[in-house]
Amino acid sequence: MSATILFLGPLRDLAGEAEREVSAPLDWEALLDTVGPDIAAQIKDERVNVACKGKVLADKRTLLAEDGDEVALLPPVSGG
């Protein structure tokens, strides 16, 4: 059983990959452990959203990704 973490924007550069297959189920604490300390520090920021099953979570700490789910890490959008 696995889930896919999608790294978007600058998080992709920091991760060095666009996506990563991980064991499922995946909750918030497991996500933080899986992505490593640099990305974990970034995604704890309130401006970074987490989406699961195509929906942005109102509270990312409630994450529970199951087999086949995608978890997208969505950094704030900048630009003009």
UniProtKB/TrEMBL annotation:
Source organism of this protein record: Qipengyuania aurantiaca
Coiled coil: none
Protein name: MoaD/ThiS family protein
Pfam assignment, any one: ThiS
Domain of life: Bacteria
